[in-house]
Amino acid sequence: MRENFVIHPNYSHLAAKLQDVLYNFSKKGDYVTKGERNVIKMVQLEGIAFNIKKFKTPNVFQSLVYQYLRKSKAKRSFEYASKLIDFGIKTPFPVGYLEVFSGGLKESFYVSEHVNYDFDFRELIHNPSFKKRNEILRQFTHFTFKLHENGINFLDHSPGNTLIVESEKDTYVFYLIDLNRMRFESMDFNARMHNFRRLWLSKTMMKVMAKEYAKLYKKSVDGTYALMLHYSRGFQKKVNSKKLRRRK
Q1: Could you state a single Gene Ontology molecular function term (predicted)?
Q2: Please, which pLDDT band fits residue 114 given cuts at 50, 70 and 90?
Q3: End-to-end CA distance of the chain
């Protein structure tokens, strides 16, 4: 068995305590989410709250791929979070990760600082009368534009992966989470509009965001809205078709 434990220098003094939590993950901390694929727990160490994400154990083939050909999701999450921070993009601070190998990747954990957020992007979708909704959408559009301008193609740019903090009156701060699927590349207008598709935007939301993005990119509002709508509806239709097939 081989292990790879990496911790940010800011938290090197907590390395032993953090390793103890990781080695005893089933017994330590409080559950934040307990899904079929991944589990997230929160722990307190010396008065600081951390989130620990344990990724699903890969199958035999995938475990070998992660050992020899591809970085694990935990390692990617840590490295991508560090890159985002370098670009001035908010994400829970990357603390460290642990990989356990034995004939392939057996277990992997990603540790980040816990962020006390006010709501996530999903609430804007489910509640059309959400307070200051249009203003939040406009600021979120600026946030997404900054991602694109920095060549950050967040492949999981979906409603549950943006946490929102109201910092001052009518000012909102956005944090990206679930970072292991990301590409760093130049993005043309087509790619940028394609990146909005997973957000499950209504036409009303798209009109607000398209108008704002068009101003930033110096593109026509109608053209921006049409392309955003095209990719969003295509994605929604595909997902709904899959759900219908499963039911049948």
Answers
A1: kinase activity
A2: very high
A3: 44
Identify any residues that bridge with 48 across adjacent strands, giving them in sequence order.
45
d(CA 83, CA 73): 15
CB 11 within 8 A of CB 99: no
- Assess contact for 14 and 45: CB atoms under 8 A: yes
Q: How far apart are CA 15 and CA 6, in angstroms?
A: 9
User: Tokens 């239709």 map to which residue?
Assistant: 237
Q: Which residues contact 85 (CB under 8 A, 6 or more apart)?
A: 91, 93, 94
Residue 17 lies in a domain: yes
Domain end call among 61, 80, 113:
113
Which residues span the domain enclosing 84? 2-113
DSSP type of residue 70:
S
User: Model pTM?
Assistant: 0.93
Shared-domain flag, residues 238 and 147:
yes
Could you tell me if 101 and 131 lie in one domain? no
The CATH number of the domain holding residue 214 is 1.10.510
Q: What is the pLDDT of residue 28?
A: 93
In this predicted structure, the answer to whether residue 20 has a pLDDT above a threshold of 70 is yes
Radius of gyration of the chain (CA): 20
> What is the number of helices (H) and of strands (E) in the chain?
8, 11
